[in-house]
Design brief:
By secondary structure, the protein is α+β, with helices and mostly antiparallel strands. The chain is built from 20 helices and nine strands. A hairpin with a 5-residue loop joins strand 6 and strand 7. The longest helix has 23 residues. It is globular and about 70 Å long.
């Protein structure tokens, strides 16, 4: 199994990797399909199903779908240009993607939120259609946004497991489980990051890997800085106030005072994470880590390490990111990183496991200690539901990232106090998360039909 570090960490746009980035990517893929087809389209239509329907408005799925069908992509998203296109579409009922001319798309009629008919492949399903002048469908494709910005067609989703089993390994260290990862680490003498880097070198040169990792961290850190310097009310109607800036200013004012309690370090970690997720909630540029909803955990732990841990150096950030991506890949392959599939244990839980592993690595942990750190972090997120109030990626998501960062640091610290020997293997925790997600009631999986979403007033 190979999942690139640049698949796990993707530059995109908030508020959701599955509900915003995914539909935008699907729209771009459908345009490519339409360009390659013999049909001459007159209009476009989209139908959203499952979680994409239930929490789509709060996650900006409607905007993302329109923009994707207009030709926008997450990695090159320009906010001002997007607003111009959305306004033009409201005025004219037309989209004009490159190479396809003017296509009719009236959101009130052509963007359908289907709450009654879930698609069979995944909770995040959508159907994109091209129509002729009479409104008849001449081309359509089903897409599933499976978490973290990953998008598969219906055919791709049904074939993915068979392909993965049949295909020869393209990389020197094709570990599919944590047990295999540890065995290969012992056999090769390489750490987890070293094996991950060797795998990456099969697809891109060393310089490109380093440049890509540097960009990932730069975008993460820029997102923290924007969040720490911006205040105001987040969009969406809940009137949630940004808090990261005020808390950060308070922490800086207290810094160095002898009366500051040791536990205040938790506030620093939380504030870094909240800064990212406030930016995400506002539709800003973030990095999936492994998703937008959980985007604050990994950068917060890196920033904590750089700013507060003696001996930390930015030269080792690639080791952190490569280690984290290896753990994230195991979770995605063997369970899920999708809140709509397994609840928030799959998002913030996965992010905490990734961050714990990365921190343990740069603090000198052995492969066994790193695996232990990831297991501790994931184990103590098991059963966490995804129940966003009003379908917005704000409550409880923003604070939850702060607590996820704290748990990640604690997990790494506990693992480093031992020799890597522990009772519950990471593979068992991942499988437990998969089973828990399967058994979890649908109302707790990113539908806003249960939990906090129905017990907190939405106005």
């Amino acid at each position: 199994m190979f999942l690139s570090v640049f698949d796990m960490f993707k530059v995109g746009v908030g508020p959701s990797s599955s509900h915003t980035m995914g539909p935008m990517v699907a729209g771009g893929r459908f345009l490519d399909l339409l360009r390659a087809s013999p049909f001459h389209a007159h209009g476009l239509r989209a139908s959203l199903h499952g979680s994409l329907a239930f929490t789509g408005k709060g996650h900006a799925t409607d905007r993302a779908t329109i923009l994707g069908l207009a030709g926008f992509l997450p990695e090159s998203y320009e906010a001002e240009a997007a607003e111009d296109v959305l306004q033009a579409n409201r005025d004219t009922g037309v989209l004009s993607p490159e190479g396809l001319g003017a296509l009719q798309f009236r959101p009130a009629q052509d963007l359908i939120f289907d709450f009654d008919h879930a698609l069979p492949g995944h909770a995040n399903g959508m159907i994109l259609m091209a129509t002729d002048a009479q409104g008849d469908v001449i081309l359509q494709e089903i897409y599933y946004s499976i978490g973290g910005g990953f998008v598969l067609t219906e055919a791709e989703l049904s074939a993915v497991d068979d392909r993965a089993l049949a295909a020869p390994s393209p990389v020197p260290f094709p570990f599919r489980t944590a047990e295999e990862m540890l065995t290969m680490a012992h056999g090769s003498g390489l750490g987890i990051a070293g094996m991950k880097r060797a795998n990456e070198r099969r697809f891109r040169p060393e310089a490109e890997i380093d440049a890509g990792l540097a960009r990932i961290w730069a975008v993460m850190n820029d997102c923290i800085e924007r969040g720490l310097s911006t205040d105001g009310i987040l969009p969406g109607g809940l009137k949630v106030r940004r808090r990261a800036k005020a808390i950060h200013e308070s922490l800086k004012a207290e810094h160095g005072m002898n009366l500051t309690a040791p536990h205040v370090i938790n506030d620093w970690m939380s504030t870094y994470a909240m800064a990212v997720n406030e930016e995400n909630a506002a539709g800003g540029q973030v990095v999936t880590a492994p998703t937008n909803r959980a985007a604050g955990v990994v950068p917060a732990v890196i920033r904590y390490w750089l700013d507060h841990v003696p001996g930390a150096t930015s030269a080792r950030i690639p080791e952190f990111l490569l280690t984290a991506a290896a753990i994230g890949g195991l979770i995605k392959h063997n369970a899920s990183i999708s809140g709509a599939e397994c609840g928030c244990q799959a998002e913030v839980g996965s992010a905490a496991a990734m961050a714990a592993a990365g921190l343990c690595a740069v603090l000198g942990g052995t492969p066994e200690q790193i695996e232990n750190a990831a297991e501790i972090a994931l184990e103590h997120h098991l059963g966490m539901t995804c129940d966003p109030v009003k379908g917005l990626v704000q409550v409880p998501c923003i604070e939850r990232n702060g607590l996820g960062a704290i748990k990640a640091v604690s997990a790494a610290s506990l693992a480093l106090r031992g020799d890597g020997t522990h009772l519950v293997p990471l593979d068992a925790a991942i499988e437990t998360m998969r089973q828990t997600g399967r058994d979890m009631h649908e109302k707790y999986k990113e539908t806003s039909l249960g939990g906090l979403a129905v017990n907190v007033p939405n106005c």
